[in-house]
Design brief:
By secondary structure, this protein is an alpha/beta fold.
Length: 203
């Protein structure tokens, strides 16, 4: 969990970690290796989901969007569809694969993007404000999918200002304020700090 108030620097940190932003001081490391040297591995193993799914959907069907990375990797359309089938099924998109992604609900669009990232080979997901625009049932459904994905061995960084939605499912929590890390620790430690000094965490 990466959290903090709006404008605290959460999205910028994700962009630095994903290699989308290179104007920063200090060192970003991925699996112990410093960027930019680790960029090929970062781009191969991480998937970044923007806050607004409309900025990331590119194709005219769910299937084509989910298989886009695979087809860039040289898969034929048929091979890509076969490789993507487990991800479409696990994210409950198999009945929507012929739909235009822009006709889907916000929650369905986010699941479409996650399926595409996983199908493309990402083992680490960087999700920027994935609950924005979702009602309670939609947010809970997305959380259920994220929990199942994590249980399969994937790493997930959820960037959100809404701590309560996801903190109970988080293994490790970081809080940012004014561009700096002001807390890092377990979910239990974060809840304890909130009870004692919520203002100090800027939450």
């Amino acid at each position: 969990l990466l959290t903090g108030r709006n404008g605290s620097g959460k999205t910028m940190l994700l962009r630095c970690l994903s290699g989308l932003e290179n104007r920063y001081s200090g060192i970003c490391r991925y699996r112990g290796k410093a960027l930019p040297g680790a960029l090929p591995m970062v781009r191969r193993e991480t998937g970044f989901m923007f806050q607004n799914p409309m900025h990331q959907l590119l194709e005219r069907s769910v299937l084509d969007d989910v298989t886009l990375a695979l087809r860039y990797q040289g898969y034929s359309h048929e091979q890509a569809a076969q490789a993507a089938a487990p991800y479409l099924e696990s994210l409950e998109l198999e009945d929507l694969q012929d739909r235009d992604p822009f006709s889907l609900s916000t929650g369905e669009q986010r699941r479409c993007l996650i399926a595409g990232l996983l199908a493309g080979g990402a083992t680490t997901l960087l999700l920027d404000e994935p609950f924005t625009g979702l009602d309670y049932p939609g947010a809970q459904k997305l959380i259920e999918h994220l929990v199942r994905i994590r249980e399969k061995g994937y790493s997930i960084v959820v960037c959100t200002h809404d701590v309560n939605k996801i903190v109970m499912h988080s293994d490790f929590c970081m809080v940012m304020a004014r561009g700096e890390l002001v807390f890092s620790g377990s979910a239990e430690d974060l809840r304890h700090r909130q009870q004692q000094d919520a203002d100090g965490l800027f939450l």
